[in-house]
Fold:
Amino acid sequence: MWVPVSSYLIEHPKGLVLVDTGWHEEIRLNQKKHLGRLAYSMFRGDLPQGDSIAEKLHSLGIKSEDLDFVILTCIRTTSG
Structure:
């Protein structure tokens, strides 16, 4: 099953706003660990090189310190 993981960068007059952070680059190395057993049993992640939010921001010349706001629309945990 293919499930999109989206992030958005908004240039607002009050600063840069990042909406959702997407998957970390480590998802490429150990999906079972980062997704959890149940999610891993249902789908696999595909995060091509250069497509993580950190890599995308870097390609735009933006550092994480340059972000003024980060909005997380969905917070889930597999560890309790």
